[in-house]
Write a structure and sequence with these properties.
346 residues, alpha/beta, 35% helix, seven-stranded mixed beta sheet, two-stranded antiparallel ribbon, single chain
Length: 346
Amino acid sequence: MSCADKIPPKSIRHHTSLETMGTLQCDTPVYDGFVRKFMADYAVKGSKPAVKLARKFCHTWPVPKRDPEAQPPRTTVRVGVMDSSFNPPHYCHGAYMECLAIMELMPAAVARGQQTGPEARVLGIDAYLLLLASDNADKPPKEASLEQRMRMVDMLATTVVEDTTADTWHLWKSRDQFDASNLHNMAIGMVNTPRFVDKCQAVRDVVQSEWKANMGEEAESLPAPHVLSYFAMGWDTLIRVFDPKYYTKFPAELDSFFDNGGRIAYSRRVGFPNEEVDAFFARPEMAPYLQYIFELRLPKRVKHISSSTVRLAVRDSTESVRDVPPRILEYVNNLQLYRSDINSLG
């Protein structure tokens, strides 16, 4: 099927300022069948939490490429997870992954002086996972379909994995730093549950399954790996993780999230003062969890970006359209996405 068959042959004359990005990237897979099957099999009432992979950018995912003569693989697999509605994906989503990859981090408990521990260090993420949520606890779907968003998630992953020329949005400074980060070891997929405690279980299951499959005979002599899932999120999402209304058994279910390897890597996004963050972490009930929470310091050039501001920028043809990778903007323009009335954009 050609790109002409996939995209309505309809130009966007009232958005001519957005039509300068070149031709649509035709090599991005179409995910209509994948999304339909996922929704039919896993997005029905009573389904167990599940993550299904749509594409692996490294065929050995989640096992990083390694020298055959190197030491045996670690029995702990660290996975950086970006779970979102991706409506649409943008550079800040990519920056979360790169922050996890190269930034020196320390647990909030150490940063606040509540316990001793190592100095800030690079986490050593082995693999990365972008997950499109089929159901978000607080965000109903808006305009772009799940099939369309899945394709844009692929474009975002391609931007992170393959656009390895230093650019203004990249956090890494050299090709050696990029190679050491394992950012090439990326996968994308879908998740069917809005709760992080369930997402953590589903991520652990798929990582262990893929690890076993890719280790081959070597896996028979090794125990299943311990999976540490570092969920990247904004401050507003972190607050929801600790909100009892999202649990049937609180705090037991919250505790199981961390017991099963769940970790939180958050960013103080625009609009949340430091005093609010500090007061939240100072609450006595937060003390047991601070060892599992890490702060990502997003660069100022991406910190302001959100999907809602991008949707409005597309509608109004403003400069903020530059906050999405060119291949995603081309796709948005060709399908005329996000041009509805402001009340439908949310």
